[in-house]
Specification:
The complex is a heterodimer of chains A (212) and B (129). Chain A has 212 residues and is mostly helical. In chain A, helix 2 runs antiparallel to helix 4 and helix 2 packs antiparallel against helix 5. Chain A is elongated, with a radius of gyration of 33 Å. Chain B is α/β, with parallel strands linked by helices and 129 residues long. In chain B, helix 4 links the parallel strand 4 and strand 5. The longest helix of chain B is centred in the C-terminal third of the chain and has 14 residues. Classes of the chains: A mainly alpha (212), B alpha/beta (129). At the A-B interface, helix 4, helix 5 and helix 6 of A face helix 1, helix 4 and strand 5 of B.
C-alpha cells in the first residue's frame, strides 16, 4: 500500500480555483491594457476612496441635520407645553377674579412669558429651516458619486461589448450624461486639505489678508 | 430704505433658494425673487430692477463665476452687489470671486447671523443703509 497520500478533492479544487483566478486576472489585465482601459481602471481605483469619503460626508451631514431638527423640535415643544399650561392657569385665574388677575400682575407676567417663548420658538423654527441646507450640500456630493458610478458602468459595458464572442450580441446602452458640477463642491475633508477653508472666519481672514 | 431693496436669489437647489429668501425676509428684506441658474438670473436682471444679488457658484448652464463676470461687464448691471453663497471652499475660488468683483463670500453651511451680517455690511459700504 502506498504511503503517499493522494491530494484531497478540496485541495485539488482550491489549487485549480487559484490557478483559474490567476489566469482570469491575467486575461482581464491583458484585455484592459489592450483596450486602453488600464489607465481608466487605475483612475477608478483612485476615485473610489474619494467616493467613500463623500458617502461618509453625506451620512454625517444628514445625521447632524436630523439631530439638529429633533433637538429644536424638543425645545420648541417644551416651550409650547409651558405656554399651554400657563394659558390654562391664567384663564382659570381670570375666570375666578379678573380684577385680581390683572392687579396682581398675573396677566402681564403671562404676556411677557408668551412674548419670550414665541421669540425662542421662532429661533427654533429658523434652526429647523437652516438644517435643511443638507439637501443642497449632499445633493452636490451625490451628483459626483452617481457620476463616478455611471462612468464605471459605461466603461464596463464598453469592455463587455468589445470582448463579447462574435455570436453574442450585446446592445450598447443609451449613453447618459448626468449633470456633473464642474467645480469641487463641498469640501468633504476640509481639515486635511490646506487648499480649502473649513469655516466662514477663514474666508473672512483670507479676504482681509488680501485687502478685500 | 434698505427694507425696500429688491433681491435676486440664484441657486440651483430650490431648498437653498427658499432658505435664503426666508432668512432675508426675517432680516426685513421682503422683496426677493429667485433664479435657478445664471442664465435665468441674467434674463431677470436685464428685464427687471434689482438692488442685490445673492448667488451660488456651482450651477448648471451658467455658474456663479460666469454670472458675476456677465454682471460686471454689463454697464447697466455692474453696480449691483453680488454676494456669493456657495459650498466651494477652495481658497483660489474665494480669491477669484473677490478679484472678479464679488461684494462678499459666504461658505455653506452658514448661519442666519452670517448672512445678515454680510448683507448689512455690503449695504452699509455701498451707502444703501
Amino acid at each position: 500500500m502506498s504511503t503517499e497520500s493522494a491530494p484531497t478533492p478540496t485541495a485539488i479544487s482550491s489549487a485549480e480555483v487559484h490557478q483559474q483566478l490567476g489566469a482570469l486576472t491575467r486575461q482581464l489585465h491583458d484585455s484592459l491594457t489592450g483596450l486602453g482601459l488600464a489607465a481608466k481602471v487605475k483612475d477608478w481605483a483612485g476615485e473610489l476612496p474619494d467616493a467613500k469619503s463623500r458617502l461618509s460626508y453625506i451620512a454625517r451631514l444628514t445625521g447632524e441635520a436630523a439631530e439638529k431638527v429633533l433637538n429644536s423640535v424638543d425645545q420648541a415643544k417644551a416651550q409650547h407645553d409651558h405656554i399651554a399650561a400657563e394659558t390654562r392657569r391664567i384663564g382659570a385665574l381670570i375666570v375666578k377674579d379678573p380684577v385680581a388677575a390683572v392687579a396682581k400682575g398675573h396677566v402681564m407676567n403671562f404676556i411677557n412669558d408668551v412674548e419670550q417663548a414665541s421669540r425662542q420658538v421662532d429661533g427654533h423654527l429658523t434652526e429647523i429651516m437652516m438644517a435643511q441646507d443638507f439637501h443642497d450640500l449632499t445633493g452636490q456630493v451625490i451628483a459626483r458619486v452617481v457620476n463616478l458610478a455611471a462612468t464605471i458602468e459605461d466603461q464596463l459595458v464598453q469592455l463587455l461589448i468589445q470582448t463579447a464572442p462574435p455570436d453574442v450580441a450585446v446592445k450598447a446602452p443609451v449613453a447618459h450624461e448626468p449633470y456633473v458640477p464642474a467645480l469641487d463642491g463641498p469640501a468633504v475633508n476640509a481639515k486635511d486639505n490646506p487648499d480649502v477653508v473649513s469655516n466662514q472666519s477663514e474666508v473672512d481672514d483670507l479676504l482681509a489678508s488680501l485687502g478685500f | 430704505m434698505s427694507k425696500e431693496l429688491r433681491f435676486l436669489v440664484v441657486d440651483d437647489f430650490s431648498t437653498m433658494r427658499r432658505i435664503v429668501r426666508n432668512l432675508l425676509k426675517e432680516s426685513g428684506f421682503v422683496d426677493a425673487d429667485e433664479a435657478e441658474d445664471g442664465v435665468v438670473a441674467l434674463q431677470k436682471l436685464r428685464s427687471s430692477n434689482f438692488d442685490f444679488v445673492v448667488s451660488d457658484i456651482n450651477m448648471p448652464n451658467m455658474n456663479g463665476f460666469q454670472l458675476l463676470g456677465e454682471i460686471k461687464k454689463d454697464e447697466k448691471l455692474k453696480h449691483l452687489p453680488v454676494l456669493m453663497v456657495t459650498a466651494e471652499a477652495r481658497k483660489e475660488d474665494i480669491v477669484l470671486a473677490a478679484q472678479q468683483g464679488a461684494a462678499g463670500y459666504i461658505v455653506k453651511p452658514f448661519t442666519k447671523a452670517t448672512l445678515e451680517d454680510k448683507v448689512n455690511h455690503i449695504l452699509t459700504k455701498m451707502g444703501l443703509k
